[in-house]
Amino acid sequence: MARPLLFDRVAEQQAERARASLVRRLRTVDAAHGAYVTIGGRQLLNFASNDYLGLSQHAALREALTDAASRWGVGATAAQLLGGRRDEHAALEEALARWTGRERALLFSDGWAANLGTIAALLDRKDVCVQDKLNHASLLDAARLADCDLKRYRHADVDSARRQLESVTDAAAILATDGVFSMDGDIAPLRDLAALCREQHATLMVDDAHGFGVLGPDGAGSVAEAALTQDDAPILMATLGKALGVAGAFVAGSATLIDALVQNARTFIYATAIPPPLVAAARAAIDVARFETWRRDRLVRLIAHFRSIAAARRLALLPSPTPIQPLVIGASDAALAVAAKLEDAGFYVPAIRPPTVPDGKARLRITLTALHSESDVERLADAIAEALG
Ligand SMILES: Cc1ncc(COP(=O)(O)O)c(C=O)c1O
């Protein structure tokens, strides 16, 4: 019999990964308290969380969650279209639409579902999806699922994006980009991309998982910071599990877009609605994120402080203006060794390795949050300098 045995192949792949220092390891957090996590009985200062505003443990969110659980119980019990939609879902969608300056919004269970559902609902095999090379995996997989022509352009390079669009002028097109790149921390050239899309009759889609809550005058994200309206950036996706500290995601845009998603987005239609207590917590998070502006101010100060201290210690951080502050180490084994030394010194900063990042560009992905203090980031910079020897 010539048929390969599936789990023999899996075992070979795992052995290969181990030889290349690429095995992923699950760690269990025993407790989370402020900026600290306890792992394996040790308290570590956490620089790996996307809870940028420090809302995941906020009292207002906990209270909204428990109130909604008393009212609704826990689960939504069905898809939104089949009786799972509560007034909580409608209210959150309205609040998100208001905040982002869009006509409407639609909730999805998470960012993966939002990206897969949206692109596959709008594009088919006659169409083209033009994407930044460093886009999140869910956007790339979404184009594969849509079975459209996926064309990738050089990172943040508007001319390269233009060449890709100009190579297919007779196909409906979405140009999709992360607003803030998840492993590099830089911001997409959104104004130029919007101008390009206008000129090329393409539709701009922004995945603002890491900009939402963090950037823009009242935290409405990278698209608001770039002052792009619904006409400029017609498809906006953002998650509720990062700066908002909860879980879930939404797509915002015109009524035409949202109606199309309700009809065609399979990850929306065939998925149980987000549990009402989480929806209520997300709505409470919006008020905190929008109006407690000190959290964003503090992040801005921390980012500047960390970057200046890092520069003084000759740590070559990537040029990022956001809370994601990557330090490229290079080889995977070297990145793992630095992360292990940092853990010994009391810091949790996991190494990010290929294929999450390109070969030879393994890195520490340091994330700052409003829960950190200036002395926390100073101590981290010292520890990294020491670990790098
Ligand atoms: C840029 C980006 N888009 C989408 C997602 C997926 O979002 P979720 O975690 O809600 O599935 C992530 C990461 O989680 C992300 O970093």
Quick overview of this protein structure:
With 389 residues, this protein is of the alpha/beta class. It is 42% helix and 17% strand. The mean pLDDT is 97.
What profile does the largest beta sheet have?
7 strands, mixed
Distance between the termini: 55 Å
Strand-pairing-aware structural class: alpha/beta
**Count of helix runs:** 14
Strand content: 15-25%
For the CA atoms, what is the radius of gyration? 21 Å
Basic shape: globular
Give an account of the 3D structure.
It is a single chain. With 389 residues, the protein is an alpha/beta fold. It is 42% helix and 17% strand. It has 14 helices and 14 strands. Helix 2 packs antiparallel against helix 11, helix 3 (87-100) packs parallel to helix 11 (276-291) and helix 4 runs parallel beside helix 5. It is globular and about 55 Å long. The protein binds pyridoxal-5'-phosphate.
Describe the secondary structure blueprint for this structure.
Blueprint: H1 6-19, E1 29-33, E2 36-39, E3 42-46, H2 59-72, H3 87-100, E4 104-108, H4 111-122, E5 128-132, H5 137-146, E6 149-153, H6 158-166, E7 173-178, H7 190-200, E8 203-207, H8 222-225, E9 235-239, E10 249-253, H9 255-264, H10 266-269, H11 276-291, H12 294-312, E11 324-330, H13 332-344, E12 347-348, E13 351-352, E14 362-367, H14 374-388
Bound molecules: pyridoxal-5'-phosphate.
